[in-house]
Specification:
By secondary structure, this protein is mainly α. Helix content is about 80%, strand content about 0%. It has 20 helices and no strands. It is globular and about 95 Å long.
């Protein structure tokens, strides 16, 4: 009962944090509210939550990394793959070395291997936090795609580096050659396992669905189990469960393009995964807040052991690490940009040099979030000989401080840097979308004609099928006509589409309100009402996206 009560309290805190973030007159990122609520919970009630690192890692990281890989826009990643790889791998190693030596120099009580582990933990970035910060000042799409691609890959590279650093702490030895060989096995094996698990599970469920029909609940549950299966199998084979979860998600995005799942399955599955993402991210930050007082006490003890008797030194450490992270990132981004421009000039290409504000925004957007917190909380509790893991509480506190300070700094700085910033025009995909809509509509017309003919053939009431088919095909022909126009006619057609969309939304809202009024008057059953409202909701969702 106690465990269930703690889980319910955490879930309630996540719900309340969302409401507080929406009510706040200042655009602060949601994680800050969740951390604050966790601190409040710790101050009024001792939940006694003891985080087991391996369990914590297993519960939260596989689904979050899987979903990142599943939903990341692949075209943006492939377009800027060079920049993303430089940030996701080169910058991580640069950060681990630079911040690791800095931390060990500032805090001699923290062994170098632990300092490297901390540096690896704070290297991954969190684009979800950045998008929440810039809600009122939209981030350029291309910049957001780079941040998302970087985050997806540096999650894996940072956490794998952390594992090596922790292993060096536990064993007291480190061999670069051995680590390189191990990394290749860990990385290649993890990617192969993640890909294989998703492909095998999808093929099996598609075969069963074709033979025996599809059950929506089972399909959703399978998608939830895949990241855990990939992670556990990879860990059992001593490969990277982190990379396995990421690879499983990327593979899922490709195998889903076969379109074999039912429409209702995709709609419900998307809603379930949105809830999982919101809940997992929220619980992690609430747990951070709840653990913060205890972490602060342990960190202060380590600081005292270094000869500094003032807890204020903790703030000095956090600020120093943040400044180092920002400086290293800025240096890396600037150098990478110079190198890119140099290569372009060698090829004879003309590129526009980005504004210094965009480079600064790219640096400031390196916000730390969920993965950093989940990673640092998985540091071992004890060494192999049973003694306490050195400076664990201090490492957790410093990582938490980096998360909070980077969120606050980006909340203040990004809107100012991005406001009024002139950027190169984003490539428009409207024509591609129009062509796809035309092709889909033409395919629909052919299918309706074929089915209408088959259904009405040899029947005395064949005219009914012809009339019904004509009504449906007319809607598709209107779409083709509107999307085929050019110039002023196209703009006029789009304006008409927007007017029609608003009118349809007004009509759908009126439909739903009337259905609810009829239910309240007891003239319609609840079951029938749910069916009708769902139909209206699906139509409304379609017109809101259009």
């Amino acid at each position: 009962m106690e465990t269930i009560s703690v889980a319910l309290i955490l879930l309630l805190a996540v719900v309340i944090s969302g409401a507080l973030a929406r009510m706040s007159p200042i655009a602060l990122p949601l994680p800050l509210f969740q951390i604050a609520l966790g601190v409040v919970i710790a101050s009024v009630a001792n939940l006694g939550v003891e985080l087991e690192p391996e369990i914590f890692f297993l519960l939260f990281l596989p689904p979050l990394l899987f979903l990142d890989g599943w939903r990341i826009p692949k075209e943006g990643v492939f377009r800027d793959k060079g920049t993303i790889l430089e940030l996701a791998f080169g910058l991580v190693v640069f950060t681990v070395v630079g911040v690791g030596f800095l931390v060990n120099w500032m805090i001699p009580a923290m062994p170098l291997a632990v300092a490297f582990a901390l540096a690896a933990i704070v290297s991954p970035t969190d684009p979800i936090a950045v998008s929440a910060i810039a809600a009122r000042v939209p981030i350029p799409k291309r910049l957001m795609h780079i941040l998302e691609g970087e985050s997806l890959l540096n999650d894996a590279s940072g956490l794998v580096c952390m594992r090596f650093a922790v292993a060096a702490t536990l064993t007291g030895t480190f061999s670069l050659a051995e680590a390189a060989g191990t990394f290749l096995w860990v990385a290649i094996g993890g990617i192969a396992i993640g890909t294989g698990v998703t492909w095998s599970a999808t093929k099996a469920k598609n075969w069963i669905s074709r033979k025996f029909g599809e059950e929506t609940g089972s399909q959703i549950l399978i998608s939830l189990l895949i990241p855990f299966a990939a992670y556990l199998l990879a860990e059992r084979l001593h490969c990277s469960g982190i990379l396995a979860a990421v690879a499983a998600g990327i593979t899922m995005s490709y195998v889903e393009q076969t379109g074999q799942a039912l429409a209702v399955t995709r709609v419900r599955r998307s809603a379930v995964w949105d809830t999982v993402q919101f809940t997992a991210n929220g619980i992690i930050f609430v747990l951070l807040g709840e653990q913060l007082p205890q972490i602060l006490a342990g960190a202060a003890q380590v600081v005292h052991e270094t000869g500094h008797h003032e807890p204020a030194w903790l703030l000095v450490y956090v600020v120093s690490i943040n400044l180092a992270l920002a400086a290293l990132r800025l240096l890396w981004v600037w150098t990478s940009l110079r190198f890119t421009l140099f290569r372009a000039a060698r090829r004879g290409e003309a590129l526009v040099t980005p504004s210094w504000r965009l480079i600064a925004a790219m640096s400031l957007a390196g916000v730390r979030g969920t993965i950093t917190l989940a990673g640092v909380l998985t540091l071992p509790l004890v060494m192999a000989d049973g003694t306490a893991f050195p400076a664990r509480d201090l490492a957790i506190f410093l990582a938490a401080g980096v998360i909070i300070l980077s969120l606050v700094a980006a909340s203040i700085g990004l809107p100012h840097l991005l406001k009024g910033l002139e950027l190169p025009p984003e490539p428009s995909h409207q024509e591609d979308e129009d062509r796809a809509r035309i092709a889909a509509s033409e395919a629909a017309i052919r299918a309706v004609e074929r089915v209408q003919h088959d259904m009405g053939e040899g029947r005395s009431d064949a005219d009914l099928y012809v009339d019904a088919g004509a009504r449906i095909m007319e809607l598709y022909r209107q779409r083709i006509d509107g999307r085929s126009k050019t110039g002023e006619e196209r703009e006029l057609a789009r304006k008409i589409d927007e007017i029609e969309r608003r009118l349809r939304l007004a009509g759908l809202r009126a439909e739903r309100d009337e259905i609810y009024r009829i239910v309240r008057s007891r003239r319609l059953t609840d079951e029938a009402a749910r069916k009708l409202v769902r139909e209206v909701d699906l139509l409304e969702a379609r017109f809101r996206v259009t």
